[in-house]
C-alpha cells in the first residue's frame, strides 16, 4: 500500500475519471481547471484551461482522444486530451452539472441545474467525428424533475438515460423519445439527495450514494433494488471495484459542520463493503475532510506493483479525494492496494492499519 | 354520491343539470341526506380542543347585596381584591342585578386572562372574609355543570365486581432470563428484549408518539411512565403495554417515583402573569395504584429552591427525597433553615412540624434506613464550624455529629445497603486560595458509628469522581489532573481488621472521568466520556486486573443492566453523528451495535430485589458449576444455530447474486453485436483478451559496398 499525494488543485475536488486504459486520471475541481495526471506515478500531465467556473464532472472518450467537462460557467466543453486545446463549447442558460459519453462516443448527455426559474434539464448532444463539424444542437432535451440532477449516465446500448439528484428518486428515461420509463420506489429508494452514481464495468448495474447515509445497488435495466449498504455518515462518493466484489463509500459531514476536535468525528474514512453480503469489511484512513469523489482504476492488468503473495499477482488501485484544512491544499490521494490486502479483508473486521501519508 | 348516480337521477326527474345552479341549492336545516360535509370529516378526525373554555372565569358568591347607588363602590372593592391576583380582562367583570329589586344578587363573575390566574384566585380568596357576615365562596365557572349534575338524593356507590389484574411482573418470568430496555429515537418509543445470545434486540412493543417528552421506568420496573401535556400515564401488563393509570397534572414537567413505587410525584412550573413575580410551582403526589392525589403542594418557585443555591426559575429535582428504603414511609424536602419530613400514613409533617436546622445546605437519606444525613456550612466566618450530622426519623434524634473546619463544600455518598456514608469534604488551605479534598467515612451499622478520616496520598489531587461498590465494601475514586488522572480503589476492611480502610491499588494515568460499578459489584467501568470521546475500560476489582479496553466513540451515556451481565453505551442526540447504542458483555466484548438517528433515551427496565436469602445466594454461588452446565449447553446450541443461520444466509445471498450476474452476462452477450455496431465495428469490449507477443522485425537500414585493399 503506497499512497501518492497529487497536489495541484486549489479548491475542493469534485470528480475523478480514469480513461479506459487506466493510465490517465482526470480530476475536476471547483478551481475551474480540470487536470490530467499519470495514474501510475501521480505526475501532472497537463491542465485544460478555459472554464470560468467550478467544474463538476467530466468524461473521456474510449480512445482517450476527447474529454468533455461540465461547469458552473453554464458551458460544457470538448477538449483535445493530447494538446489541451478546447474544441467546442456547448452553451446553456444554467450551470452544467453531469456529462457522460455514450457507447461509441457519438452522443453525450449533459445535465443542467435549475437556475433563475429554469427547471433542471437533460440534454443529448451529437458528438461529431471531426471537431470542426461539431454543432451545439441538441438531439433531445428532457425537462427534468424538481431539484438538481447530480448525475446522469447512459443505459445499455444508449437506449436509456439514468438520472438522479436532489429529489432522491432514480429515473430511467427513453433516450429516443425522452419519455420517463421507470422511477425508483419511494419506500425502498433513497430518502435524501443522491450525490453520486457509478456504473459497473460491464454497465449491467449501478450504485448510488445518498446523503441518507446509504448506498444502493440497482439493476440498470429493470431498476430493481438489489443491495443496500448502510453507513454512519452521508455518502458523497461511491465506487465499485472492477475486479472484486467490493464497493467503496466515501463521505463525511459537511465541511462546514466539521468539528475541530477529532477527525474521527467527521467520519472521513473511505469504507469498504462486501458487495454481496453488504457487510463493512474495512476502511482507509488518511483524510482530514469529506471525501468528494472516488474512482477505481479500470485496468486491473496494468498493475503498478506486482506482488507474488498468496498467489495473487495483480494489484488494483483506488483513488480517493481529500480536502485538507490548510488553505489552498486540495489534493488527490492515490492509493495502490496490493491484492493480498483485500484477501485480508475477508477475514472479518480486519481493518487496515491506520497510516499517515504525511 | 357518485356523479353517475346524480346524472341518472336527474334524467329520471327530467332535470337538465346544466340549467341548475348547484350553489343555490339549500338543504333543509338539520338534514344532510347522508352526505357528510367535508368540515365534519375534519372534526371527526381532529376533535378540536378548546383549551381555554371558561376555565379562566370564577364565580364569587356571598358578596354583600347592595342597591344600585352602592354598586360602583362594591365593584371597586372587588376589583381591588381580584386585580392583585391577576389581570382581569377588559369587560371581564360582571355583577348581575336583580331586575325586580334593582339590587345585586350577591355574586359576581370575573374573567382572567389565563386559567392559572383564575385557579390562583380561587385558592387565595376562597373563604376570604370581607366582613363578619360576608365570607366569599369561590367556584370555577367550569364546575357549574358538575354541580348541576349532583343528584338531590344520595345514592350508595356501586361496588364493582372484582376483576383480577394482570401479572405486572410477567417480564421477570422470561424463560431465557433476558432483560428489557426502552429506547426513544425520533418519534418512536420501543421496548425491546436484550437477546444477547442472538446478538440482537428482540422487539416487545413499539409505539410512535407514545410520550411527549420522555419516558421513565418505575424503580422496580413494574411501570413505564410517559409524560404528556395533560399529565402522566403508566403502562405495563403481562403481554403487552397497556395503560394502567393516568395522573392528571396539566403541563407536567418532571416526575419521580418513590423507591417502592407506591407514590408518584409530578411537578410543573407556570409562567407568572406578572413578569416580576416568580414562577408558580405545582407538585402533586399520587398513589400509583389508585391514581388518587394524596397531597398537593403549590407555591412560588423560591419556596422550593433547595438550600438557597438553586436558580430562581428552577428547582433541584427531586424536590421530595424519599427515605426509609422500599417502604416509602417518609419523604422530605429542604427549605430555608428547615427540613420538612412527611410521613405517608397521613401525608402530614411528622409531629406536625419541620425540623429546624439553621442554614442547612444539603441532606440525603440512607438508601435503606430512615436516617437523614445533614450538612450545615460554616457560620460566622469560622466561629461556628461546619457540621455533618445523622438524624434518626421519626424520633428526630441526632445519632452522630461531626464538626469540620474551613470547609468550602461537602458531598455525601451513601453505600447502597446503607452500611457506609462517605462525605467528601473540600477544605480551604491556610491561605484560603485553594482547596483540597478529604473523606470522612461513617460506618453506620457499627456501634456508635465510628468515623474515619481518609486523605489521598497526594492531598492536592482533585477528585473527579467517587463511587461505592453496590452492596459491597469498596469504593473507587478518580483523582488527579485531566487529561491523565489516576484511579484508586479502597476497601473499608483490611485483611486483618474489618474496622480500617485500606487502599487496594492505584491505576496511574487513566483516560477516565466517570465510574460505573456493576450493580452486582466486583466489576467497574472506568469511562472517559465527553472530552475523552468514549474510552471504556472494564476492570475486575476482585482480581485487580483489566478485563478489556474498548471505545464507543463520543458515547454520552453508560448503563449496566440490572443483573450486571451487560452494559449499554449510547450516543444520544446531543451529537449529530453516530446516534445509537452498543451492548457489551460485562468484560468488555462488543455484542451488538444499533444505529438510530435522533436517539434520545436508553433505559434498562429495573428488576425488583431478589427474594433469595443471602445464604441461598451463597449456596448458588458455590455450586455455580453445576447450575451453569445447563446454560452453557444452551449457549452452545444457540451459537451453533446462529453460525448455521449465518452460513445459510451467506449462501443464499451468494446464490441470488450469482443468478443476477448470470442474467447480466446473458444480456451482455445478447447486446454484443449491437454494441459492436455502435462502436463502428470495433471488435470487442472484452478487451482483456490480448496477449503480448514478441515480434522480431529485421529492417535493412543501409547498404554500402566498399572495396578494401587486401594486404598480404
UniProtKB/TrEMBL annotation, chain A:
The cross-references to InterPro entries, in alphabetical order and at most eight, read: eIF3i (IPR027525), WD40/YVTN_repeat-like_dom_sf (IPR015943), WD40_PAC1 (IPR020472), WD40_repeat_CS (IPR019775), WD40_repeat_dom_sf (IPR036322), WD40_rpt (IPR001680)
- Give the similarity note: Belongs to the WD repeat STRAP family.
Its cellular-component GO annotations read: eukaryotic 43S preinitiation complex; eukaryotic 48S preinitiation complex; eukaryotic translation initiation factor 3 complex, eIF3m
Can you name the source organism? Answer: Actinidia chinensis var. chinensis (Chinese soft-hair kiwi)
Tell me what this protein is called.
Eukaryotic translation initiation factor 3 subunit I
- Reported function: Component of the eukaryotic translation initiation factor 3 (eIF-3) complex, which is involved in protein synthesis of a specialized repertoire of mRNAs and, together with other initiation factors, stimulates binding of mRNA and methionyl-tRNAi to the 40S ribosome. The eIF-3 complex specifically targets and initiates translation of a subset of mRNAs involved in cell proliferation.
Q: Which HAMAP family match?
A: eIF3i
Sorted keywords for this record are:
Cytoplasm, Initiation factor, Membrane, Protein biosynthesis, Repeat, Transmembrane, Transmembrane helix, WD repeat
PROSITE patterns listed in its UniProt record: WD_REPEATS_1, WD_REPEATS_2, WD_REPEATS_REGION
Q: Where in the cell is it found?
A: Cytoplasm
Q: What residue ranges are annotated as transmembrane?
A: 330-351
Q: List the GO biological process terms.
A: formation of cytoplasmic translation initiation complex
Assembly notes: Component of the eukaryotic translation initiation factor 3 (eIF-3) complex.
The residue spans of each WD repeat are 6-47, 48-89, 142-183, 187-228
Q: Which GO terms describe its molecular function?
A: RNA binding; translation initiation factor activity
UniProtKB/TrEMBL annotation, chain B:
Which keywords are on file for this protein?
Cytoplasm, Initiation factor, Protein biosynthesis, RNA-binding
Provide the Translation initiation factor beta propellor-like domain boundaries.
402-602
Q: Where is the composition biased (Acidic residues)?
A: 683-695
Q: Which GO terms describe its cellular component?
A: eukaryotic 43S preinitiation complex; eukaryotic 48S preinitiation complex; eukaryotic translation initiation factor 3 complex
Ranges annotated as biased composition (Basic and acidic residues): 669-682
Record-level Gene Ontology MF annotations: RNA binding; translation initiation factor activity; translation initiation factor binding
Q: Which domain of life is it from?
A: Eukaryota
Q: Where is the protein localized?
A: Cytoplasm
Gene Ontology biological-process entries: formation of cytoplasmic translation initiation complex
Q: What is its main location?
A: cytoplasm
Do you know which InterPro entries this protein is assigned to?
Answer: EIF3B, eIF3B_RRM, Nucleotide-bd_a/b_plait_sf, RBD_domain_sf, TIF_beta_prop-like, WD40/YVTN_repeat-like_dom_sf
Segments of this protein annotated with the region Disordered: 669-695
Query: Carries keyword Cytoplasm?
Result: yes
Q: How does it assemble?
A: Component of the eukaryotic translation initiation factor 3 (eIF-3) complex.
Q: Which family does it belong to?
A: Belongs to the eIF-3 subunit B family.
Task: Summarize the protein's role.
Answer: Component of the eukaryotic translation initiation factor 3 (eIF-3) complex, which is involved in protein synthesis and, together with other initiation factors, stimulates binding of mRNA and methionyl-tRNAi to the 40S ribosome. RNA-binding component of the eukaryotic translation initiation factor 3 (eIF-3) complex, which is involved in protein synthesis of a specialized repertoire of mRNAs and, together with other initiation factors, stimulates binding of mRNA and methionyl-tRNAi to the 40S ribosome. The eIF-3 complex specifically targets and initiates translation of a subset of mRNAs involved in cell proliferation.
Protein name, entry field: Eukaryotic translation initiation factor 3 subunit B
Give the organism, scientific name: Actinidia chinensis var. chinensis
Q: What is the lineage of its organism?
A: Eukaryota, Viridiplantae, Streptophyta, Embryophyta, Tracheophyta
Amino acid at each position: 500500500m503506497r499512497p501518492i499525494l497529487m497536489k495541484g488543485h486549489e479548491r475542493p475536488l469534485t470528480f475523478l475519471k480514469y480513461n479506459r486504459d487506466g493510465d490517465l486520471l482526470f480530476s475536476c475541481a471547483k478551481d475551474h481547471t480540470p487536470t490530467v495526471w499519470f495514474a501510475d506515478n501521480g505526475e501532472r500531465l497537463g491542465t485544460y484551461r478555459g472554464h470560468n467556473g467550478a467544474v463538476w464532472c467530466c468524461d473521456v472518450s474510449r480512445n482517450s482522444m476527447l474529454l468533455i467537462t461540465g461547469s458552473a460557467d453554464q458551458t460544457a466543453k470538448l477538449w483535445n486530451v493530447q494538446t489541451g486545446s478546447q474544441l467546442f463549447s456547448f452553451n446553456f442558460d444554467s450551470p452544467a452539472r453531469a456529462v457522460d459519453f455514450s457507447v461509441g462516443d457519438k452522443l453525450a448527455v449533459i445535465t443542467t441545474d435549475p437556475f433563475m426559474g429554469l427547471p433542471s434539464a437533460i440534454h443529448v448532444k451529437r458528438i461529431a467525428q471531426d471537431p470542426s463539424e461539431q454543432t451545439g444542437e441538441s438531439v433531445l432535451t428532457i425537462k427534468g424533475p424538481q431539484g438538481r440532477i447530480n448525475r446522469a449516465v447512459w443505459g445499455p446500448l444508449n437506449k436509456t438515460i439514468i438520472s438522479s439528484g436532489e429529489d432522491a428518486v432514480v429515473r430511467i428515461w427513453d433516450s429516443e423519445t425522452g419519455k420517463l420509463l421507470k422511477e425508483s420506489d419511494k419506500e425502498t429508494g433513497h430518502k435524501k439527495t443522491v450525490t453520486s452514481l457509478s456504473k459497473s464495468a460491464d454497465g449491467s448495474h449501478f450504485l448510488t450514494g445518498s446523503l441518507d447515509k446509504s448506498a444502493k445497488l440497482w439493476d440498470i435495466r429493470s431498476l430493481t433494488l438489489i443491495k443496500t449498504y448502510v453507513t454512519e455518515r452521508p455518502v458523497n462518493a461511491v465506487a465499485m471495484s472492477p475486479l472484486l466484489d467490493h464497493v467503496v463509500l466515501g463521505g463525511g459531514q459537511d465541511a462546514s459542520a466539521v468539528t475541530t476536535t477529532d477527525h474521527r468525528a467527521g467520519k472521513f474514512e473511505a469504507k469498504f463493503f462486501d458487495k454481496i453480503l453488504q457487510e463493512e469489511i474495512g476502511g482507509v484512513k488518511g483524510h482530514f475532510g469529506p471525501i468528494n469523489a472516488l474512482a477505481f482504476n479500470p485496468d486491473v492488468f496494468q498493475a503498478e506493483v506486482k506482488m507474488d503473495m498468496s498467489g495473487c499477482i495483480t494489484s488494483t488501485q483506488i483513488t480517493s479525494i481529500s480536502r485538507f484544512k490548510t488553505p489552498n491544499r486540495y489534493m488527490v490521494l492515490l492509493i495502490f492496494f496490493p491484492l493480498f490486502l483485500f484477501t485480508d479483508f475477508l477475514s472479518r473486521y480486519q481493518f487496515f492499519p491506520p497510516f499517515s501519508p504525511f | 354520491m357518485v356523479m353517475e348516480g346524480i346524472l341518472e337521477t336527474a334524467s329520471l326527474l327530467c332535470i337538465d343539470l346544466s340549467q341548475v345552479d348547484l350553489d343555490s341549492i339549500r338543504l333543509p336545516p338539520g338534514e344532510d341526506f347522508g352526505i357528510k360535509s367535508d368540515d365534519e370529516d375534519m372534526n371527526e378526525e381532529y376533535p378540536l380542543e378548546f383549551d381555554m373554555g371558561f376555565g379562566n372565569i370564577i364565580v364569587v358568591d356571598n358578596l354583600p347585596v347592595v342597591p344600585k347607588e352602592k354598586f360602583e363602590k362594591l365593584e371597586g372593592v372587588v376589583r381591588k381584591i381580584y386585580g392583585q391576583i391577576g389581570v382581569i380582562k377588559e369587560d371581564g367583570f360582571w355583577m348581575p342585578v336583580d331586575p325586580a329589586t334593582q339590587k345585586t344578587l350577591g355574586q359576581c363573575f370575573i374573567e382572567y386572562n389565563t386559567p392559572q390566574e383564575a385557579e390562583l384566585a380561587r385558592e387565595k380568596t376562597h373563604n376570604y372574609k370581607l366582613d363578619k357576615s360576608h365570607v366569599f365562596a369561590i367556584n370555577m365557572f367550569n364546575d357549574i355543570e358538575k354541580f348541576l349534575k349532583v343528584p338531590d338524593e344520595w345514592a350508595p356507590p356501586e361496588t364493582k365486581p372484582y376483576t383480577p389484574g394482570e401479572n405486572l411482573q410477567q417480564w421477570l418470568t422470561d424463560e431465557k432470563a433476558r432483560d428489557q430496555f426502552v429506547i426513544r429515537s425520533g418519534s418512536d418509543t420501543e421496548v425491546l428484549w436484550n437477546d444477547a445470545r442472538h446478538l440482537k434486540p428482540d422487539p416487545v412493543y413499539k409505539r410512535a408518539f407514545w410520550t411527549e417528552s420522555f419516558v421513565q421506568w418505575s424503580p422496580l420496573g413494574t411501570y413505564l411512565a410517559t409524560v404528556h401535556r395533560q399529565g402522566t400515564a403508566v403502562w405495563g401488563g403481562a403481554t403487552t403495554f397497556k395503560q394502567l393509570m393516568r395522573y392528571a397534572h396539566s403541563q407536567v414537567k418532571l416526575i419521580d417515583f418513590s423507591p417502592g413505587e407506591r407514590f408518584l410525584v409530578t411537578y410543573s412550573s407556570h409562567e407568572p402573569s406578572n413578569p416580576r413575580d416568580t414562577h408558580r410551582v405545582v407538585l402533586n403526589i399520587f398513589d400509583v395504584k389508585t391514581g388518587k392525589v394524596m397531597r398537593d403542594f403549590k407555591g412560588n418557585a423560591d419556596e422550593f429552591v433547595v438550600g438557597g443555591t438553586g436558580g430562581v426559575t428552577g428547582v433541584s429535582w427531586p424536590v421530595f427525597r424519599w427515605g426509609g428504603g422500599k417502604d416509602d414511609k417518609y419523604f422530605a424536602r429542604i427549605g430555608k433553615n428547615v427540613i420538612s419530613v412527611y410521613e405517608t400514613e397521613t401525608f402530614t409533617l411528622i409531629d406536625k412540624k419541620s425540623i429546624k436546622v439553621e442554614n442547612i445546605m444539603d441532606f440525603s437519606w440512607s438508601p435503606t434506613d430512615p436516617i437523614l444525613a445533614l450538612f450545615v456550612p460554616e457560620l460566622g466566618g469560622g466561629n461556628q464550624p461546619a457540621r455533618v450530622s445523622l438524624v434518626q426519623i421519626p424520633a428526630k434524634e441526632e445519632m452522630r455529629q461531626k464538626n469540620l473546619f474551613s470547609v468550602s463544600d461537602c458531598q455525601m455518598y451513601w453505600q447502597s445497603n446503607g452500611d457506609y456514608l462517605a462525605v467528601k469534604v473540600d477544605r480551604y488551605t491556610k491561605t484560603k486560595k485553594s482547596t483540597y479534598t478529604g473523606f470522612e467515612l461513617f460506618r453506620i451499622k457499627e456501634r456508635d458509628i465510628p468515623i474515619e478520616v481518609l486523605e489521598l496520598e497526594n492531598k492536592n489531587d482533585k477528585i473527579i469522581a467517587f463511587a461505592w461498590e453496590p452492596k459491597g465494601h469498596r469504593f473507587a475514586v478518580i483523582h488527579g489532573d485531566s487529561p491523565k488522572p489516576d484511579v484508586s480503589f479502597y476497601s473499608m476492611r483490611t485483611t486483618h481488621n474489618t474496622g480500617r480502610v485500606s487502599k487496594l491499588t492505584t491505576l496511574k494515568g487513566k483516560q477516565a472521568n466517570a465510574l460505573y460499578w456493576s450493580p452486582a459489584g466486583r466489576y467497574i467501568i472506568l469511562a472517559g466520556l465527553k472530552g475523552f470521546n468514549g474510552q471504556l475500560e472494564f476492570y475486575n476489582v476482585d482480581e485487580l486486573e483489566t478485563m478489556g479496553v474498548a471505545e464507543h466513540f463520543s458515547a454520552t451515556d453508560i448503563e449496566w443492566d440490572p443483573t450486571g451481565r451487560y452494559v449499554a453505551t449510547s450516543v444520544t442526540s446531543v451529537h449529530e453523528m453516530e446516534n445509537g447504542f452498543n451492548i457489551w458483555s460485562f468484560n468488555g466484548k462488543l455484542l451488538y451495535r444499533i444505529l438510530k438517528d435522533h436517539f434520545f433515551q436508553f433505559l434498562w427496565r429495573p428488576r425488583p430485589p431478589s427474594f433469595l436469602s443471602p445464604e441461598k445466594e451463597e449456596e448458588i454461588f458455590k455450586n455455580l458449576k453445576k447450575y451453569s452446565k445447563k446454560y452453557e449447553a444452551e449457549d452452545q446450541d444457540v451459537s451453533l444455530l446462529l453460525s448455521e443461520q449465518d452460513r445459510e444466509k451467506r449462501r443464499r445471498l451468494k446464490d441470488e447474486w450469482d443468478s443476477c450476474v448470470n442474467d447480466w452476462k446473458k444480456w451482455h452477450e445478447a447486446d454484443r453485436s449491437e454494441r459492436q455496431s455502435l462502436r463502428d465495428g470495433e471488435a470487442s469490449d472484452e478487451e482483456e483478451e490480448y496477449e503480448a507477443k514478441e515480434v522480431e522485425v529485421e529492417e535493412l537500414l543501409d547498404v554500402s559496398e566498399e572495396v578494401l585493399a587486401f594486404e598480404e
